[in-house]
Amino acid sequence: MQIQYKPKRNLLQTILHSEIMQGMAFTLRQLFAKPITRQYPQEKPDIKLGFRGQHALVRDKETGQSKCVACMRCVTVCPSRCIHIRFHEDEDNGRRVVDSYDIEALRCVYCGFCEEVCPVNAVVLTEIFEYAAYDRESIFFDQERLLANWDAFAEMKGAAIENYVNPFWRPRGIPESRLPAAKRLDVPEEWTIEGQVVGNLVKREQ
Ligand code: SF4
Ligand code: SF4
After folding, report:
1. Average pLDDT of 128-146?
2. Which H or E run contains 79?
3. Residue from 68, 78, 99, 115 to probe ligand 2 pocket by mutation (most atoms less than 8 Å from CB)
4. Full-prediction pTM beyond 0.90?
5. For ligand 1, is residue 83 a contact (CB within 6 Å)?
6. Which ligand lies nearest the alpha carbon of 85?
7. What is the helix (H) or strand (E) element at residue 178, kind and residue range?
8. Which residue did the predictor score with more confidence, 48 or 187?
9. Residue 185 contacts by C-beta under 8 Å, 6 or more apart in sequence?
10. What is the mean pLDDT of residues 143-166?
11. 79 lines ligand 1 (CB under 6 A)
């Protein structure tokens, strides 16, 4: 069997190099065609509720500090081992006080386990998706940066942050009654669609 590698061309096609002409015509058409790719960064993507972006430590409105109680659940559950917390116990009341809270964001796999297990909704993944940086240190989040991330997210959401409920802040498929109090949040209407599981609420629309 003979394999034909070269296309058959007549003399005129050979002289004019018709394939090159076709290729150039295609390129010329594309120059004036509407782009099919998103023109980032001028055009930002539409981020949906539940998107897992930059980590943040939620700032307590009353104290101005992180809500973290140093229970270490997020550290234990993190499959990437990228959360590092140091704490000490208050001599007066025995409560744990966080000394440092760091997340190596470049090692994170965005599984969302940390925010699911956090009993007080202290650590969360926000809808801030941009991670571009010029050095590795910028993507190593310390406590200050994590709180600043929350402030930036709160500013982005505006007044809506008061009622903001990210469904990934709570474990799915577990009855409401067995969730910690902070996890029993009102679920917005837009999150009761498409068979999403939130607590023990499952809605399957036909
Ligand atoms: S999202 Fe997953 S991998 Fe990332 S910090 Fe949280 S638990 Fe770790
Ligand atoms: S699970 Fe929540 S409260 Fe516990 S250490 Fe992590 S961030 Fe802090």
Report:
1. 91
2. none
3. 68
4. no
5. yes
6. 2
7. none
8. 48
9. 121, 165, 169, 170
10. 87
11. yes
Q: Burial of 45 by CB count in 10 Å (0-12 exposed, 13-18 middle, 19+ buried)?
A: exposed
Cα 190 to ligand 2 centroid, rounded to whole Å = 28
The answer to whether residues 105 and 84 touch, using CB atoms and an 8 Å cutoff, is no
Q: What DSSP assignment string belongs to 95-138?
A: -EEEEEEEEEGGG-----HHHHH-TT--EEE-S------SSGGG
* Mutational pocket test of ligand 1: of 54, 75, 85, 108, the residue with most ligand atoms within 8 Å of the beta carbon: 108
Topology, domain 55-170: Alpha-Beta Plaits (3.30.70)
Residue nearest to atom 7 of ligand 1 (CA): 78
Domain boundaries, the chain: 55-170
> Worst-scoring range by mean pLDDT, 62-66, 93-97, 136-140, 202-206?
202-206
